[in-house]
Design brief:
This protein is of the alpha/beta class and 481 residues long. The protein contains 14 helices and 15 strands. The structure holds 6-O-phosphono-beta-D-glucopyranose.
Length: 481
């Protein structure tokens, strides 16, 4: 490791993400000895804070969100890495102050990570202002930018943002975050598929009947209406998290576990997606959403979406991928269920449930991280089968290891220059190409399916069940308590 200092400049340090995730993740990496030495963390914000205010803020953040790993001695070391720099994001004249502050720490020759944890309307300003002062130039150490989601509001704005980003940074300097890729169990999809030999031979249209991705949340819009009511579930969850999970499930084996090889394969999946028909979509809004603070009383923002899509390639042609996500649902769960085909010829009686021999592989991303394989077993003393689960739970299989937060992994990867778990520019655009026509169709097409309301604490509107029933499929869930 070089002696060159590493400086992490967190734009938006006074915000929620920094408080809840970034500061605790940096601290956790720091106490595990994983961050480079020497390390400087510069909080960047609009407020009139001093270094001491930032240190207090970070202290509170750790006490609230990293209590189990907090200890005074490490904090005393960590706090020495912290300082604050004031910038008014859209105002170029405030950036020389930031540049001076950063240069003072390292004489301009450090490695630098600019973390943009700010409202997306400021992304272009910040990038241009950094560019204007040559702050992206790699004269000595590296310069990288981490950009949070949402990356664009639709294809057009994502393309425009990509153009701005590329006018200042090379693609290899850019780390677009989707925190779902930092989740251990999402990464395990790759290990499960490509570190084993038993799954890949059956991972195709000959053996798989359908694939289901469920990302259900119990939380409602809460205090985020300002952002959420103009975004909705398609932009907030489907464009990024669900399509990322889908890519991991559907991609071809990459030739190596490196950023380019991996992302080349993921992007091919998104590019092979058939245009989604509006009749294959369901939108819903939970009862009471329009009464939430900050939500327009006549809001047409969906808080739930379900869709059926197809990947038109040799592996997946005509196999439905069902995606659904919603807020205010019955249980928080993220899972991928791979439903296999029935045996071609049945010699046994139907199972107890009547759903004869439907093997299912469930990849449980959260909260009960693990893998379940549903197989049919003979009920003792009877000639009928019953579905039983073979289960792997992370908490049992990896007793000694804790499950790091996604941001810990991602921050470390960005510092180490590993972009495998970040989204490339073309990938982002391909994802928008899938969701944009659905969002636009819902807004303008008279033939679009209606908005359904659904009860809080349910699994969403009944229309989402009907979407699957048309093909004689049903939503399957595993890993629930
Ligand atoms: C974020 C969305 O990207 O992901 C939120 O903006 C959502 O609306 C969150 O609640 C879900 O993340 P997790 O890790 O709790 O599943």
């Amino acid at each position: 490791m070089s002696d060159r200092p590493t400086v992490i400049a967190i734009f938006g340090v006074t915000g929620d993400l920094a408080r809840r995730k970034l500061i605790p993740a940096l601290y956790s990496n720091f106490i595990k000895g994983r961050t480079p030495e020497p390390l400087r963390i510069v909080g960047v914000g609009r407020r009139d804070w001093t270094d001491a205010t930032l240190i207090d803020h970070a202290h509170q953040s750790l006490k609230n969100y990293a209590a189990p790993i907090y200890d005074e001695r490490s904090w005393d070391c960590f706090r020495q890495a912290l300082s604050y720099s004031k910038v008014n994001l859209p105002q170029p004249e405030t950036y020389p102050n930031l540049k001076d502050d950063l240069d003072a720490l390292d004489k301009g020759n450090s490695n630098r990570l600019y973390y943009l944890s700010i409202a997306p309307e400021f992304y272009q300003d910040v990038i241009c202002n950094l560019g204007a002062l040559g702050m992206a130039r790699e004269n000595g150490g590296w310069r990288r930018a981490v950009i949070e989601k949402p990356f664009g509001y639709n294809l057009e704005t994502a393309q425009s943002l990509n153009r701005t980003v590329h006018s200042v940074f090379n693609e290899s300097q850019v780390y677009r975050i989707d925190h779902y890729l930092g989740k251990e169990t999402a990464q395990n999809i790759l290990f499960m598929r490509f570190a084993n030999t038993i799954f890949e031979p059956i991972w195709n249209r000959s053996h798989i009947s359908n694939v289901q991705v469920t990302v259900a949340e119990t939380v409602d819009v809460g205090t985020r209406a300002g952002y959420y009511d103009s975004s909705g579930v398609m932009r907030d969850m489907v464009q990024n998290h669900l399509l990322q999970l889908l890519s991991l499930i559907a991609m071809e084996p990459p030739s190596a576990f490196d950023a380019d090889a991996l992302r080349n394969e993921k992007v091919k999946v998104l590019q092979a997606a058939r245009a989604v028909k509006l009749e294959d979509t369901v939108r819903g809004q939970y009862d009471g959403y329009r009464r939430a603070e900050g939500v327009a009383p006549d809001s047409a923002t969906p808080t739930f979406a379900a869709l059926k899509l197809f990947i038109d390639n040799w592996r997946w042609k005509d196999i439905p991928f069902y995606l659904r996500s919603g807020k205010a649902m019955r249980q928080k769960t993220t899972q991928v269920n791979i439903q296999f085909k029935r045996p071609p010829n049945s010699i046994f009686e139907l199972t107890e449930s009547g759903d004869y021999s439907r093997n299912m592989l469930s990849i449980c991303i959260q909260p009960d991280e693990g893998i379940h394989l549903t197989i049919e077993a003979k009920i003792p003393d009877q000639q009928i089968a019953k579905s039983v689960d073979m289960e792997l739970h992370y908490e049992n299989a990896f007793v000694a290891e804790d499950l790091p937060d996604a941001y810990e992994r991602l921050l470390l990867d960005a510092i180490n220059g590993d972009a495998a778990l970040f989204i490339r520019g073309d990938e982002i655009e391909s994802a928008w190409k899938i969701v944009d026509p659905v969002i636009d169709g819902w807004a303008c097409d008279p033939a679009a399916p209606p908005m359904h309301s659904y009860r809080q604490g349910s699994w969403g509107p009944a229309a989402a069940d009907e979407l699957l029933e048309r093909e004689e499929h049903i939503w399957r869930l595993s890993c629930l308590h």
